Amino acid sequence: MDHCHVETDSEDELPSNWEERVSANGFIHYVNVEKNQIQLNHPRTNKMKRVPVELPYNWKKTVDADNKVIYINELENRETKTDPRLAFSQEFANDKLRQRFDSSTKAVSILYGKNLTGQVALVTGASSGIGYETARSLSNFGCEIIFACRNEKVTNEKMKALEVENSRAKLNFIQVDLTNLKSCKEFCDKVKLQYQHINYLILNAGVFGLPYYLTSDGLETTFQVCHLSHFYITQQLSSLLNENSRVVIVSSESHRFASLPALPLTKEILNPPPAKYWSMLQYNNIKLCNILFAMELAKKWQSRGISVFALHPGNLVSTNLSRHWWFYKVIFAAVKSFTKNLEQAASTTIYCSIADELKGLSGLYFNNCYICQPSKLSLNENLATELWNLSDEIINEILQKT
Ligand SMILES: NC(=O)c1ccc[n+]([C@@H]2O[C@H](COP(=O)([O-])OP(=O)(O)OC[C@H]3O[C@@H](n4cnc5c(N)ncnc54)[C@H](OP(=O)(O)O)[C@@H]3O)[C@@H](O)[C@H]2O)c1
């Protein structure tokens, strides 16, 4: 085969007499039809590739009258003899993670060619901004979405809009108010009644720049909404997660400006009184907690094969996050044309949820759809353990009172 004539300069062009085929488990193999020779390596580049195990959404495999395999795109009503998964092949020989996407990548580019039928994503805060775009993108590729949101009216409107876009969308609103642990408990009980398994637990909901405000459980709101309730929900839903599940936690690059002391961490630091509260600093601290939680959870659930990732979606992305102060609204609006749009802002969440190359990995932080080194403090294992223990203690105290 070394002597085969190469007709074009395309790297992946096959020499004559060679055909590319896909096995049932998604590995591409190359067949020399003249010599009846089969191999996994590309005959010219020596690369090994695989494709998604499932056919892309809307595609069906069948056989024609001559017993030849054909692929039908049910949406576009067209058929082909070429396996449509071949358009989405990925190299796998290299055990290092390659950067395939960047800051401009849209969620749809990551999902292209995927079929998420039969899979379930639970997205907190899916009624607005990045969470909504995450739910929308996954749903458009067949994934069932649990909208874990508090505002029924707004969520129903958003779900209707998605159903107009995709009449086959599977969407389910289950109400949760993250300022209240009892609501979180009831929410988890309902989820467990309706579902046996969750593939993607996407902890996205958040608040930013709030005036000091206590929740009905008596905690500072940013701490409870962005960290504690998500921590609690994750544990409550543990039985629905297995080695095919990923927990994806939306943090922020602002974690780098956190001021949590390395140790000892106290309840007062996490849940400060009004005199010690500055909304920006509290947000940064709690976004650090998101990464610390991800790291500790990854460690605790390593033996279960569950992947846990934290991520930054983008800077000053125009969403409702700035709603709590006119000044933030002005800033977010002023920079809108220079920052990621929603489709780009959802892409790192989507990447962490579905990228095949992340299988078997856990305890990582991502930015722009690629691994990123988080702050030194977020890798402090003692701090992560301390946060876990304090979060448990605070939850137990609240539950005992109610
Ligand atoms: N936008 C950015 O530039 C940026 C940058 C870095 C990180 N992030 C992170 O990205 C995530 C998504 O934020 P976003 O920008 O998309 O903001 P957003 O548009 O304000 O969305 C936040 C979502 O969280 C929900 N939420 C807030 N409080 C809740 C509660 N008590 N119970 C249940 N749901 C609650 C909101 O629901 P309601 O509408 O009912 O309040 C909304 O659906 C957040 O974790 C944020 O920290 C955003």
Automatic annotation (TrEMBL):
Going by the UniProt record, its keywords in alphabetical order are:
Apoptosis, Golgi apparatus, Lysosome, Oxidoreductase, Wnt signaling pathway
Source organism (scientific name)? Chironomus riparius
Ranked from the top, the taxonomy reads: Eukaryota, Metazoa, Ecdysozoa, Arthropoda, Hexapoda
The cross-references to SUPFAM superfamilies, in alphabetical order and at most eight, read: NAD(P)-binding Rossmann-fold domains, WW domain
Compartments reported by the entry: Golgi apparatus; Lysosome
Query: One Pfam match, by short name?
Result: adh_short
| Molecular-function annotations in GO | oxidoreductase activity
Q: What is this protein called?
A: WW domain-containing oxidoreductase
Its cellular-component GO annotations read: Golgi apparatus; lysosome
List each copy of the WW domain by range.
12-45, 53-86
Q: Which InterPro entries does the entry mention?
A: NAD(P)-bd_dom_sf (IPR036291), SDR_fam (IPR002347), WW_dom (IPR001202), WW_dom_sf (IPR036020)
Highest taxon listed in the record's lineage: Eukaryota
Under PROSITE patterns, the record lists: WW_DOMAIN_2
**Which GO biological process entries does UniProt record here?**
apoptotic process; Wnt signaling pathway
